[in-house]
Structures are given as structure tokens and as C-alpha cells.
């Protein structure tokens, strides 16, 4: 799976919300779709993209499809963001130092 697919998948707010919902445990496609003001086919399309990015896995039980979060690929997002986190931490530390300086 490419990083481009992963980043494209998490770029969409609906897909990010689907991932957040699945953090609490597996959910059926119908239960997920009920949480959105979108058609069920539209939610299914978002789930397909998340499956392609390997962020969710699908389990078929009878007539229902249960979706499970697969968070491991998100480590690549975290790795990419880490240098920016350090950048902002350093910038905020500099700002705090300036604000704490004695004005006299």
C-alpha cells in the first residue's frame, strides 16, 4: 500500500469520522451509515477507500458487513507528522521564553 493512498484516505473528513467511530469497536455498515447525513452507497464508497488504504477490514457475517479499525498504517502518518510536532514545540517554547522575559 502506498503512502499516497493512506494520506488520500485520511484527507477526507467523512473517512476520518468513520475511523473515529471504529475506534470504539467493530460496527456494521448500516450502523456506520446511520451516523451520517449521507446515502448508504456514499458511506460504502468511503469504506471501500478505507479498505484499499488498509485502515479498515471487513468481516462478512451472514447478510451484514462488520468493519474493524486497522490502525497500524496510521503509524506512517504519525512518522510524517513527528518532525512538525517538534518544530511547533520548539516555536511554542521560544514564544513562552519571550513572554516570560522581564520587561525591565
Describe the structure in brief:
With 104 residues, the protein is α+β, with helices and mostly antiparallel strands. It has five helices and three strands; from the N terminus they run ααβααββα.
Molecular shape = elongated
What does the radius of gyration come to? Answer: 19 Å
The level of helicity is: 55-70%
Largest sheet composition: 3 strands, antiparallel
- As a percent range, the share of strand residues is 5-15%
Number of self-contained structural domains: 1
Instruction: Count helical runs.
Output: 5
Q: Can you write the helix and strand succession as a string?
A: HHEHHEEH
Note the gap between the termini: 58 Å
Number of strands: 3
CATH architecture: Orthogonal Bundle
What would you give as the CATH superfamily? Winged helix-like DNA-binding domain superfamily/Winged helix DNA-binding domain
Structural class: alpha+beta
The residue ranges in which pLDDT falls below 50 over 5 or more consecutive positions are: none
Averaged pLDDT: 91
CATH first level: Mainly Alpha
The largest sheet has its strands arranged as 1-3-2
CATH topology, by name, is Arc Repressor Mutant, subunit A
GO molecular function, one term: DNA binding
InterPro entries: ArsR-like_HTH (IPR011991), HTH_ArsR_DNA-bd_dom (IPR001845), HTH_MetalResp_TranReg (IPR051081), WH-like_DNA-bd_sf (IPR036388), WH_DNA-bd_sf (IPR036390)
Protein name: Transcriptional regulator
Pfam families: HTH_20
Textual characterization of the structure:
GO terms for molecular function: DNA binding; DNA-binding transcription factor activity. Residues 1-89 form the HTH arsR-type domain. InterPro entries: ArsR-like_HTH (IPR011991), HTH_ArsR_DNA-bd_dom (IPR001845), HTH_MetalResp_TranReg (IPR051081), WH-like_DNA-bd_sf (IPR036388), WH_DNA-bd_sf (IPR036390). This is Transcriptional regulator. Keywords: DNA-binding, Transcription, Transcription regulation. The chain has 104 residues and is an alpha+beta fold. It has a single domain (3-100), classed as Arc Repressor Mutant, subunit A. It has five helices and three strands, in the order H-H-E-H-H-E-E-H. Strands 1-3-2 form a three-stranded antiparallel β-sheet. Helix 1 (3-10) runs antiparallel to helix 4 (40-52). It is elongated and about 75 Å long. The relative contact order is 0.15.
Amino acid at each position: 500500500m502506498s503512502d499516497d493512498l493512506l494520506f488520500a484516505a485520511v484527507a477526507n473528513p467523512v473517512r476520518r469520522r468513520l475511523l473515529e467511530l471504529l475506534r470504539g469497536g467493530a460496527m456494521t455498515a448500516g450502523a456506520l451509515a446511520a451516523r451520517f447525513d449521507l446515502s448508504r452507497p456514499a458511506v460504502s464508497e468511503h469504506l471501500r477507500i478505507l479498505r484499499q488504504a488498509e485502515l479498515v477490514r471487513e468481516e462478512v457475517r451472514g447478510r451484514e458487513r462488520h468493519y474493524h479499525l486497522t490502525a497500524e498504517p496510521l503509524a506512517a502518518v504519525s512518522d510524517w507528522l513527528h518532525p512538525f510536532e517538534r518544530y511547533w514545540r520548539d516555536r511554542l517554547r521560544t514564544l513562552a521564553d519571550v513572554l516570560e522575559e522581564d520587561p525591565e
